[in-house]
Fold this sequence. Notes:
Blueprint: H1 3-65, H2 74-86, H3 104-114, H4 126-139, H5 149-158, H6 167-181, H7 184-194, E1 196-198, E2 201-202, H8 204-212, H9 221-229, H10 244-257
Antiparallel strand pairs: 1-2
Amino acid sequence: MNLRNIGACSRLSANLKSHVPEYTLQNSRNTMLKSIFRWSWRTLLLVLIVLAAIQFWFLVHIWYWASHNPESTAFMRARLEILREDNPKARLRQHWVPYQRISVHLKRAVVAAEDAKFATHNGFDWEGIQKAYEKNLREGEIVAGGSTITQQLAKNLFFSGERAWWRKAQEAVIAVMLETIMSKRRILEIYLNVIEWDDGVFGAEAAARHHYGISAAALGAEQAARLAAIVPSPRRYGPGSNTSYLQRRTQTILARMNGTQLP
């Protein structure tokens, strides 16, 4: 091997050595990107599995309640905890009654007051939601919700009442499940048996006895309208409450009741 060949080999060796660090760095970057992609995909898959499991949990409960009465709701349990902070022996007042033992006046009054399109919508009153949005926009704060009876039931069954950004989306999914699995009549039956009508008073039967000393089946039209009028703020109006707002609201509901469609 002459000096020219030796020089060429030396230059080739030096050139290869100068490219090794660059190749190693590129290879390291590719490996890292693959690793990030792999772990991102696994994380996403895990999140989707968890979300699917949660939805399945909701679905199983709704399927069960389609033919069995819920013993309590998340909202009822939350209220009981609050009551027991002051009185450890506090108990909720509730007595389940079947749909046919609830006054038709109360059914009409509650639907007229809370969700006039209940019998015909699919769980969402889009016109009502739009009106509520426009009203809140004018007032500069949330003064109207636009939630249907189905959405309210979804909230009462599974949530304590605390506000969270994800809750509304989950309520919507549960509302679809309720409308798919349960009949409108069953949704209304559960709703009337679990909503609050004074501090610790839940359901139509307990409300009728608490406010009027009679059964839910015996409620007259005006009594039913007054009970429906206090549903949005049940702890504000005890037995015998008679504010000007309550009087006006009761008369408005009375006027709407005859035209209300029931399931």
